[in-house]
Each structure stands twice: as structure tokens, then as C-alpha cells.
Amino acid sequence: MKQHWGFDAFRPLQAEIIQSVMEGRDTLALMPTGGGKSLCFQVPALCMDGMCLVISPLIALMKDQVENLQKRGIAAEAIFSGMAYRDIDRILDNCAYGGVKLLYCSPERLKTELMQERLKRMKVNLLAVDEAHCVSQWGYDFRPPYLEIAEIRELIPKTPILALTATATPDVVKDIQDKLLFNKNGQVFQKSFARQNLSYVVFREEGKEAKMLDILKKTGGSAVVYARNRRRTRELAQWLVKNRISADFYHAGLSPDERSAKQEAWTQNRRRVMVSTNAFGMGIDKPDVRVVVHMDLPDSLEAYFQEAGRAGRDGQKAYAVLLYNDNDRISLEKSFEIAYPELEEIRRTYRALGSYLQLAVGAGEGEAFDFDLAEFAGTYNLEPLKTLSALKSLEQAGWIILTEAVYIPSSLLIKVDKDELYDYQLKHPKMDRILKSILRSYQGAFNIPIKLKESQLAKFLKMPVPELQQALTMLHQEGIVEYRPAKDQPQLIFTKERVDAANLAIDREMYHFRRERHRERLKKALAYAETPACRSKQLLEYFGEKTTGKCGICDVCLGRTSEGISKEEFDRFKIKIERLLKREALTLDELVQSFSSVHEDKVLEVIGYLIDEGFVDKVKEKLVLTDSGR
User: Fold this and answer.
1) What letter would DSSP give residue 449?
2) Model's pTM, two decimal places?
3) What's the confidence (pLDDT) of residue 312?
4) What is the per-residue pLDDT for 626?
5) Strand partners, 248
6) CATH topology of domain 562-630
7) pLDDT for residue 581 is more than 70
8) What are phi and psi of 616, to 5 degrees?
9) How many CB atoms lie within 10 A of CB 365?
10) pLDDT of residue 628
11) What is the DSSP letter of 135?
């Protein structure tokens, strides 16, 4: 740790987790965002003989971690869908011969015959499963390929497993251990999710933009503003700039160079505010973020907790602000309905997918395709949001995998020997100059594919980039080189062979189970925004952490939600609430609707007080009187 990372001491629980896996125990580590999860498998990977296999669903995060490890002199590699077979084969060979200490791979790679055969020849000292909540259908981000991990354990029976996640409810914690086949001496380490320095704040605001501006002016320091869609990120960033706040926008639709440049400007404080979709933040460890503002309520507290938790990682005072109004409820309920299309809609999308990719029935298992959702939807006159929901349903049913955009740089390999190349150069003077420049600028092009930067090479040759790309394509067609242009598109992978859409099997019971779980998470998120009880306490209890008191620094604890309710009003509302709940248990909505709408905020404040002080409790989404309340 000292040698490669320069740290003098471990963060809380890191040493215990590392000790546990080095003793051969299956281990589950629950640590909040920024808690230092990656070090828990990277350090033991270096301490022990052999290699650590890291499973992660996030390709961008895998690539980022591999680059950081390589900069520290640690032999690390990543394989994922969209890579050339030759590159995957070379990396797996290096792993089998002991040349790699950490291999990152996406879960869908585990079931390939190539991976399973090579795995038998690798000395795997640790199996690390990042984002382990993805293995559970109780969780908010279930991914069927994660279920393959248990089968892989049969090939490496003596290898301990380390499962890591930043967000898991008690049900998910148990399910992770069951699905990953934890051994009997397995251990669970849970770092408290409490953030003493982070003030959670909810503002009910109709004019969200003005409130955001006010917050940013008052707080100072680096900030992230989360918005629901790409167009909104651009609009908000432009609006902030007009109001003299240094800001930029970020989303997955930008080119790799644009994303990198924007991220670097923000990280180095040349831009103060990054307005982004949830594509921004994974793997970014900027400790001095003073405020994270959510312009819309995410559809789960897991997602909100992770994103809000990017504020104040340096331990200094920071704010996680949610701007909420009645439109959020309407928007979330509408999104929920779109998220679960009818089975016929899913079949229609699947049928169109086969035609779009020109894939015959019975073919396609394990194949990856570059996939442009907008083009696909436009080609078949499909509504983009409904289409995305249908694809997600196909993914959760185990038929396909849809990854985030994958940037793979251009590569070039010279396929002929030196004598043949020399003859070709003599006969093609125009190509000679390009080939000579490649040979001078890049080493090893005869042996392995080199990463090629066309813009740099074109600048050196003083020729337009399209003209250079055309020449390289011609060299490829003539068999002189193997040239693969750069790409940056999502990948769609068929995990099973294509079937006729009429025979598409979807487990209806499991589909409805996931739908109801989603509905429950949605209700919890809405309750967080609408219930005037300690925000930190609500979050901690959602994740199964018993709390002894209030945080003292959220908007509720500081009294900022108060509407100036009088004692007389308070007593009147309290008596009516007690009378209603003595008669029957009610949901929050049902209880609030028993009062005039003009008193809604005050009624919510009284209910929040009664919950906070233990007079009222929540049991399966219903509010009931406790013994104290009676």
C-alpha cells in the first residue's frame, strides 16, 4: 500500500477486509461511495502469489482503474465486449503465464468457452465482485450475467471471493451471499453509511433553477448538479454561465475526447460546476466537492445515496440537496409505467432487433454489435423511451446485454513480413510515406496491434484525417495491414441464440416481482422527499442501519422545513391523526388526504414529528400508532 499508493494507514475496515480474504474467507464488504473499496482487493492481489480476477459491469470504470494501476507500475488488464478477439486472446495468455496481477472483466465474459478454458490455467488468488448488488433480483440494478459467477467458482474452488457494494438493503445483503455461494466461514463487514459531515437537504421548490443558483452562490466550492436527461444538462449549464457561475455539462453522448477534457477541467477546478446525467461520477474521486444538487428525484434511494455521497469525501462540511416538487411525483410515476411495457411490446422490439442486426433465428449467441438506440428506434418507428424499457426487460430476462458506450482506440497490425512490405512500398509511393511514418512513430507493429492516433499521424504527414483513414482502409483491404478504426458506441450482446419472437420466453412471475420491487423503491424515494423526519436517519434505516438519534445537520433537524405551525394547530392535527390511526393503519398519502390540501405541509410536519419521536411507526408502507402513541 505504501509502495504503490503512498498511504501510511488504512481507512476504517480496509485492513480487516484484506485480512479476511487473505485468510481464505468469502467476504462481503459494504462501504459507502468513496470508502476505498478497490484497495480491498488490489492490495491482497499484490501480496499473494497469483492473479486477482475482478468482475465489474462498468466498462468505463474498469478502463479507468486499469489505467491508474498501470501508471503505478502494476500489471493490470481489462477485457470486455467490443474488443478484438486477438487482443482478448493475448491478454488471457499473459494471465495464464503469470504476467498479469489484476484482470478486470465484464460478467458476460465468464460464460465464454475461451474464458473458461484459460481460467483453468490461471492461478487466481482472489475473485473480486464489484457492484455485487447486481447479483440480486431484490436489488435496484439486477444483471443476469452476475448469476454466472457462482458457476465460475467450480473452476477455481479454493479461491476466496470478495463481494463489494456501496448500497445494499438487508434483503440484498443476504441474497448476495446466497447467490455467490459463500462458504460457511464467510464474513460481512459493514462500514456505517452515516456521513457526519454531509448535510442532507430537501427543498420543495417550484422555481428549481433559481433555487439551484441561490445554493451555488451561497455554498462556494466545487459542485455537481444532476439532471434527468442530456438536453437538460446543456440548458442548465448554459443558464449558470449566463448567471456568472463557471459551469459545463457532461453526458454519455459526448465523444471520449470531450468527456475527458470536461472531466479534467472540473477535476482541476478550471470549471466549478459539472451539470450531468448519472453518467458522471463513477470512479471519480474528487474529495473537495462541497455540494451535490439533484434537480430531480432518482427512482431509488440506492441511486440517490450513491450520487449524493460524492460530496464531502475530504471530511469537510458538504451538502447533498434535493430540489423537489409535485411534478417529480408525476414524472416518476409516468417513468415507472413506461419502464414495464406489455409483453407484446417486448416481442415487437425483439423481432425488430433481429432484423436490424440481420441476425438469423438460431444464430447470435455471444455475439456483440455496435448499437445506436436512436437509429434503431427511428428505423422501425419505435418510441425511444419505450424501446429502451423493452430492451432493459429483455436484459433482465437474460436474452441480451446492453452496455454503456465503449471507447476502443484505433489499432493497426502489419500482416506481411518485412520483405513483402518493402516490395509493396516500392510499388506504391503514396502509401510508402504513410507506412514509413507508422514504422518510425510506433514500435512493434509487426508483432502486436499498436494503438494508433490518426489525428497525430495526419498532423505529422500534413494531410487531412479522412484522407489518412481512407488510405489505411485501402491498406487493410489489400491485406497489408489489419486496421480497426476507433469506436465509441454502446454494445448489444446476444446472450442466447436468436429465437422467433413468438417463442420468446419471459418469466411473468419474476417480471411482476421486479416490477413490484421497483414500485416499493419508488415509494421509499418519494417518502424520503415528502416526510419531514431526519433525512440521514431515513437513509440509514432504509439500508438496515439502526440509528440512535438525529443527525442534527439536515434541513429537518435544523428546522428549515418548519412552516411556522402554532401549538394549537399542532395539537389539533395530532389528535385527528391519532384518531384516524386508531381506527386503521393508513399509508402516508391516505393520511394526508384526510386533511384539507391547504394544510398538507403542516400535516406532513406533524406526522414527521410523531414518527421521529416514536409515536407513529411505518409497517409495510402503512403508518400505525406505537404503544407510546396509544
Assistant:
1) P
2) 0.77
3) 92
4) 84
5) 274
6) Arc Repressor Mutant, subunit A (1.10.10)
7) yes
8) -125, 145
9) 12
10) 59
11) G
DSSP state of 471: H
The domain spans of the chain are 2-190, 198-324, 333-408+489-514, 410-485, 562-630
Angle 82-88-93 from CA coordinates, rounded to 5°: 175
Inter-residue contact 80 to 54 (CB < 8 Å): no
Q: How far is CA 13 from CA 3, 17, 196, in A?
A: 20, 6, 17
Distances, alpha carbon 337 to alpha carbons 261, 515, 567, 605, in Å: 37, 10, 42, 30
What is the distance between the alpha carbons of residues 302 and 514, in angstroms, rounded to a whole number?
Answer: 16
How many other C-beta atoms are found inside a 10 Å radius of the C-beta of residue 402?
A: 15
Nearest C-alpha neighbor of 338 from the set 389, 373, 380: 389
At residue 219, the 3 state secondary structure works out as helix
- Under CATH, which architecture does the 198-324 domain have? 3-Layer(aba) Sandwich (3.40)
| 410-485 CATH pick, 3.40.1350, 1.10.10, 1.20.1260, 2.60.40 | 1.10.10
Amino acid at 565: I
Residue 94 belongs to what H/E stretch?
A: helix 85-96
Q: Look at strands 51-55 and 247-250 and give their pairing.
A: unpaired
What share of the chain has pLDDT > 70, as a percent?
A: 97
Q: Which DSSP symbol is given to 50?
A: S
Average pLDDT, the chain: 90
Percent helix, strand and coil across the chain, each to the nearest 5: 45, 15, 35
Strand 222-226 versus strand 102-105 pairing type? unpaired
pLDDT for residue 280 is more than 90: no
Q: Which pairs from 594-597 meet CB under 8 Å and 24+ separation?
A: none
Q: Would you say 236 and 275 are in contact if contact means Cβ atoms under 8 Å apart?
A: yes
> Is pLDDT of 82 > 90?
no
Residue type for 152, please?
I
**What ranges make up the beta strands (E) of 151-288?**
161-165, 187-190, 198-204, 222-226, 247-250, 273-276
Q: How many whole angstroms separate alpha carbon 248 and alpha carbon 591?
A: 43
Which grid cell is 335?
Answer: 417513468
CB 223 within 8 A of CB 291: yes
Domains 333-408+489-514 and 410-485 share a fold: yes
Give the orientation angle of helix 508-530 with respect to helix 326-339, to 10 degrees.
Answer: 170
Per CATH, domain 333-408+489-514 is 1.10.10.10: yes
- CA nearest neighbour of 247 among 213, 298, 281, 218: 213
Asked whether the CA dihedral 515, 521, 522, 524 is positive or negative, the reply is positive
**Can you tell me the distance from the alpha carbon of 504 to that of 488, in angstroms, rounded to the nearest whole number?**
30
End-to-end CA distance of the chain: 56
Tell me, what's the pLDDT at 54?
Answer: 97
Q: How many residues does the chain have?
A: 630
Return the CATH class of domain 2-190. alpha beta
Q: Are 606 and 576 in contact (CB under 8 A)?
A: no
Q: Which residues contact 416 (CB under 8 A, 6 or more apart)?
A: 424, 479, 480
Tens digit of each residue's pLDDT (9 = 90 or more) over 342-368: 999 999 999 999 999 999 999 999 888
Helices (H) and strands (E) in the chain, counts: 25, 21
The answer to whether the beta carbons of residues 186 and 28 sit under 8 Å apart is yes
Q: Are 381 and 515 in contact (CB under 8 A)?
A: no
Looking at residue 566, what is its pLDDT? 66
Compute CA distances 327 → 106, 226, 267, 468, whole Å.
37, 17, 33, 52
